[in-house]
C-alpha cells in the first residue's frame, strides 16, 4: 500500500470543525487505501508559548478527537510526534540543507512573525516547516493530505527531498500534496472572510468539536449572514451564507444546489435551524466518544505508546540511512 502522512497541532482543547471537514473526514476515508500515519505534532505546538500542563492535556485531547472522528489506531498509526525522537533529529539534518532565504519565503511564517513582532517570534517558528518536512520524509510518504494553507510547506518538503537525494543519493520518497478543494475551507461564522482557526480569538465564530451541542446550535443560529434573505451560494457577495452551505454540504454529503432548492423561498432562520440540527447530529456522538476516551487516560496513553513504537521502527530506518549518507561516524 502507498503511504500517507498528515498531522495537526494540539493548539487548543478542542479541534474546530474546519479541521474535521478539511482534514479528518478525508483521513478517515483515505486510511482504507493507504498505510497511514497521523501525528499529533506537539513539537510544532511549542513554536508559540505553551503552558506545560496544558500542552500535555491538549495533546491527549487531540489524539482522542482523531479516534472519535474515526481514525482507527489498530489500522492507522496514530501517535504523538515527540514520542519518536527521529523527528527532531532529521529536522536538524534537513535544516543544514535549507536556505535561510528559502525558509524566509514561507508565507505562514511571514504572517505569524508580523503578528507577534520580532522579539516574540522564536527561531522555532522560523524552522517549523523544516520539522514538518522531517515528519513527512521519515515515513517515505507518497501523499500528504492538507488544507491549502499547508501547501507551501509540502512544496518545501519536496524541494528538500529532491535536494538531499541529488546530493547524497536516493534516500527519500518525494511526496505529493493532496490539497483539499476550496470548498473544504471553512470560515469563521462571525467573520466569514477569515479562516476558522484553533488559534482564533473569535469564540462565537468558531465551532469546536467538543462544544456542548446546545452551544454549537446557538453559534449557528447567530452566524453572520446578509440582508438578501435567500439561501444561495455566492462566495463573493454572500460569504456568510456560502460558508454555512459548504458546512451543510460537507456534513451531509449532499450537493449545494440540492440544499439551495430545499430552502428556496424560506428564510435564513429555517436554514440555520436545519444546519444546527446537522451539526448537533454529527458532533454529538463524536464529542461523546472523545469524552469517553478522555475519561480513561491510561488506556489512551497505552494506545499512543503502541502506535509510537510502530512509527519509530519505520522512522529509525530512514534516519539511519540519512546518518550514513551524510557521513556521520556511527557509534559502534
Ligand atoms: P493545523 O493544525 O493548523 O491544521 C490541521 C489541518 O486542518 C486543516 N485546516 C482547515 N481546513 C479547512 N478549513 C479550515 N478552516 C481549516 N483550518 C485548518 C489544515 O489545512 C490542516 O490540514 N503544519 C500543520 C501540521 C503538520 C503537518 C505535518 C501536516 C505538522 N507536520 C506533516 C501534514 C504533514 C498544521 O499546523 O496544521
Could you describe the largest sheet, including whether it forms a barrel?
3 strands, parallel
Say which molecules are bound, naming each kind only once: tryptophanyl-5'AMP
Q: Name the CATH architecture of the largest domain.
A: 3-Layer(aba) Sandwich
What spatial form do the alpha-carbon principal axes imply? globular
EC number: 6.1.1.2
Subunit structure: Homodimer.
Keywords: Aminoacyl-tRNA synthetase, ATP-binding, Cytoplasm, Ligase, Nucleotide-binding, Protein biosynthesis
Catalytic activity: tRNA(Trp) + L-tryptophan + ATP = L-tryptophyl-tRNA(Trp) + AMP + diphosphate + H(+)
Short description:
With 332 residues, this protein is mostly helical. It is built from 13 helices and 5 strands.
Care to describe what's here?
This protein has two domains: 208 residues, Rossmann fold (3-Layer(aba) Sandwich), CATH 3.40.50.620; 89 residues, Tyrosyl-Transfer RNA Synthetase (Orthogonal Bundle), CATH 1.10.240.10. With 332 residues, the chain is mainly alpha-helical. The strands form two sheets. Strands 1-2-3 form a three-stranded parallel sheet. The protein has a two-stranded parallel ribbon with strand order 4-5. Bound molecules: tryptophanyl-5'AMP. The site of tryptophanyl-5'AMP (TYM) has 26 residues, from strand 1, helix 1, helix 7 and strand 4. InterPro entries: aa-tRNA-synth_Ic, Rossmann-like_a/b/a_fold, Trp-tRNA-ligase, Trp-tRNA-ligase_bac-type, Trp-tRNA_synthetase. Belongs to the class-I aminoacyl-tRNA synthetase family. It catalyses: tRNA(Trp) + L-tryptophan + ATP = L-tryptophyl-tRNA(Trp) + AMP + diphosphate + H(+).
Amino acid at each position: 500500500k502507498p503511504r500517507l502522512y498528515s498531522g495537526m497541532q494540539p493548539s487548543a482543547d478542542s479541534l474546530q470543525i474546519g479541521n474535521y471537514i478539511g482534514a479528518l473526514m478525508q483521513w478517515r476515508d483515505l486510511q482504507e487505501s493507504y498505510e497511514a500515519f497521523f501525528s499529533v505534532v506537539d513539537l510544532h505546538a511549542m513554536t508559540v508559548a505553551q503552558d506545560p500542563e496544558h500542552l500535555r492535556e491538549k495533546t491527549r485531547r487531540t489524539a482522542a478527537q482523531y479516534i472519535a472522528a474515526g481514525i482507527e489506531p489498530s489500522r492507522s498509526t496514530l501517535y504523538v510526534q515527540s514520542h519518536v525522537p527521529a523527528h527532531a533529529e532529521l529536522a536538524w539534518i534537513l535544516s543544514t540543507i535549507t536556505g535561510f532565504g528559502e525558509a524566509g519565503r514561507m508565507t505562514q511564517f511571514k504572517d505569524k512573525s508580523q503578528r507577534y513582532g520580532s522579539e516574540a517570534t522564536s527561531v522555532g517558528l522560523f524552522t517549523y516547516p523544516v520539522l514538518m518536512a522531517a515528519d513527512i520524509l521519515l515515513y517515505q510518504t507518497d501523499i500528504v493530505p492538507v488544507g491549502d494553507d499547508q501547501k507551501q510547506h509540502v512544496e518545501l518538503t519536496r524541494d528538500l527531498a529532491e535536494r538531499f537525494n541529488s546530493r547524497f543519493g536516493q534516500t527519500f520518497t518525494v511526496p505529493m500534496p493532496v490539497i483539499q478543494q476550496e470548498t473544504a475551507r471553512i470560515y469563521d461564522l462571525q467573520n466569514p472572510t477569515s479562516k476558522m482557526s484553533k488559534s482564533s480569538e473569535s469564540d462565537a465564530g468558531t465551532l469546536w468539536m467538543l462544544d456542548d451541542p446546545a452551544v454549537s446550535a446557538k453559534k449557528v443560529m447567530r452566524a453572520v449572514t446578509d440582508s438578501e434573505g435567500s439561501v444561495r451560494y455566492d462566495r463573493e457577495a454572500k460569504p456568510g451564507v456560502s460558508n454555512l452551505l459548504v458546512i451543510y454540504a460537507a456534513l451531509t454529503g449532499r450537493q449545494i444546489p440540492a440544499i439551495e432548492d430545499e430552502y428556496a423561498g424560506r428564510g435564513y432562520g429555517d436554514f440555520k435551524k436545519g444546519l444546527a440540527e446537522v451539526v448537533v447530529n454529527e458532533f454529538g456522538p463524536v464529542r461523546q466518544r472523545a469524552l469517553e476516551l478522555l475519561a480513561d487516560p491510561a488506556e489512551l496513553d497505552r494506545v499512543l505508546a503502541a502506535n509510537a513504537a510502530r512509527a519509530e521502527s519505520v522512522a529509525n530506518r530512514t534516519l539511519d540511512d540519512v546518518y550514513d549518507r551524510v557521513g556521520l561516524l556511527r557509534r559502534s
